[in-house]
Design goal:
The protein is α+β, with helices and mostly antiparallel strands. It has one domain (39-167): Four Helix Bundle (Hemerythrin (Met), subunit A) (Up-down Bundle). The chain has six helices and four strands; from the N terminus they run H-E-H-H-H-E-E-E-H-H. It has helices at 22-25, 45-60, 68-84, 93-111, 141-151, 157-167; strands at residues 39-41, 115-121, 124-130, 138-139. Strands 1-2-3-4 form a four-stranded antiparallel beta sheet. A hairpin with a 7-residue loop joins strand 3 and strand 4. Helix 3 (68-84) runs antiparallel to helix 6. The protein is globular and about 45 Å long.
């Protein structure tokens, strides 16, 4: 059984797909003159409100954003509760990821030379941290949290975020 096959009751042939040679495949990804360099913009009122809301939620949970151990324990506890909960009644994991991503981002904003920005690159637009408006070094906290959430990783925040802090200490 083909997973992506044509429906048996369909008389139409599928549209042919243009096969690209490996050497020219990259030519189709970016238009001439388009840059792969990220576009960096300052935070607007919506992004600032998003950050403030997440920080208030973390504070209400008893999480100290200035303490990596507190962030780690809070996320691990939230993940354990979510993972052990009934699928129909457990909280929205995206909201948990959002809170802790913003908590990590705020920690980095306070402890390093990186600042909150809105960064658009070939992968989309994200609330990120970067060095001013250069965009040469970008951290997307949502990616840090979401990828590890999907794998069920716990206890990673002090090592991973600590490494970024050691590399990007405010000068």
């Amino acid at each position: 059984m083909a997973w992506f096959g044509r429906r048996k009751d369909s008389d139409t042939e599928p549209e042919p797909v243009e096969e690209l040679e490996l050497a020219s495949a990259g030519d189709q990804l970016v238009d001439d003159g388009e840059s792969l360099r990220p576009i960096v913009k300052g935070l607007g009122p919506d992004e600032k409100a998003r950050i403030d809301s997440a920080l208030a939620d973390l504070e209400a949970e008893g999480v100290d954003v200035d303490d990596l151990s507190s962030l780690s324990e809070g996320l691990d506890k939230a993940y354990a509760a979510w993972a052990s909960g009934d699928e129909d009644s457990r909280p929205d994991h995206a909201a948990i990821v959002e809170r802790y991503a913003i908590g990590i981002g705020s920690h980095l904003d306070r402890k390093t030379d990186l600042d909150w920005q809105v960064v658009t690159d070939v992968f989309g637009t994200d609330l990120s941290l970067t060095e001013g408006f250069k965009g040469s070094f970008v951290v997307v906290p949502h990616n840090l949290v979401a990828g590890r959430w999907m794998r069920g990783e716990t206890g990673w925040i002090p090592a991973v975020v600590g490494h970024i802090i050691r590399r990007r200490t405010r000068r």
